[in-house]
Design goal:
Blueprint (H helix, E strand, L loop, with lengths): L1 H12 L49 E2 L6 E2 L6 E5 L5 E5 L1 H8 L5 H11 L3 H6 L1 E10 L6 E9 L5 E5 L9 E4 L4 E4 L7 E7 L2 E7 L2 H15 L5 H9 L2
Antiparallel strand pairs: 1-2, 3-4, 5-6, 5-11, 6-7, 7-8, 9-10, 10-11
GO molecular function: guanyl-nucleotide exchange factor activity; zinc ion binding
Keywords: Cytoplasm, Cytoskeleton, Guanine-nucleotide releasing factor, Metal-binding, Phosphoprotein, Repeat, Zinc, Zinc-finger
InterPro entries: FGD1-4_PH2 (IPR035941), FYVE_RhoGEF_PH (IPR051092), PH-like_dom_sf (IPR011993), PH_domain (IPR001849), Znf_FYVE (IPR000306), Znf_FYVE-rel (IPR017455), Znf_FYVE_PHD (IPR011011), Znf_RING/FYVE/PHD (IPR013083)
Length: about 240
Amino acid sequence: QDAIDRKEKRSETFKTPHGLETDTPALKTEELGHRAPQWVRDNLVTMCMRCKEPFNAITRRRHHCRACGYVVCARCSDYKAELQYDGNRPNRVCQECFIFLTGHTVLEDREGKHKGILEKGAAEVSSRSLLCSSLQLLDKNGKGATRGWFVIPQDDPLVLYIYAAPQDVRAHASIPLLGYQVRDMPQSESRHLFQLAQSGQVFTFVADTEELKQRWMKAMARSAAGITHPEEEEEEDAGP
C-alpha cells in the first residue's frame, strides 16, 4: 500500500495544474526523460510552478525543466539528470524530476547551503565587497526599470548579488558572472547604460553616473574572465 501511495503521489506531482492551457497533454510519469516535453509557455505563469515564488525581472528568472516542461525558478531547477531523449546527456531539471529520474534524495545540507548563499545580509556583504552600489535593471522591453542594490563580494567574486535595498537581510537573486560579455552602450536620455550578455541572455543596467558605469563594467569584466583578485589582472597586463 505504501508503494501504491508513493506512485500515486508522484503521478499527481507531474499533472498539469488545473486550468493551465497547454498545446499538448502533460507527459505521463513513465515518459519523463524518454520523450521531450511540451514546454509550458512563459506567459502562462507568473510564479514558479514548484515553489510558487513569483517571477519578476530582479528576483527570479524563468527556467524550463527539460524533463517535465514546467516553468521553474533557478533554485528549483538547480539539478542535472541524464535524459534518454537527448542521448542521455545531462540536462537542467527541477528537483521533483531529479529525484524521480535518478532515485537520489536531495540532501538537506545542500538545500540549506543553496538558500544560505542568498541569505547573506546586504550590509555584511557590502562591507567586504569588490564593488557595491545602487543600479537599475531594465526589463526585457527596455521601458521599465527596477532599482536595486548590487554587490560583488570579495569572498564570492564571480557572482553578482542583487538586493532590493542596501539593508536587506536576504538577496533576491544572484547572477554567476563567469563567461558573460560586458557591453558598453551609448548614453540614452542622460542614462548611463551597459549590458551583460551570454547565450541569448541579456541584462541591461543603468548607472547613476558615467564614472560608476565604468567601474561596474571593469569589475564585471574581471569577474567574467575568472579573475578573482586584482593582482591577477595586473600580472596578465604585465605579460610574460
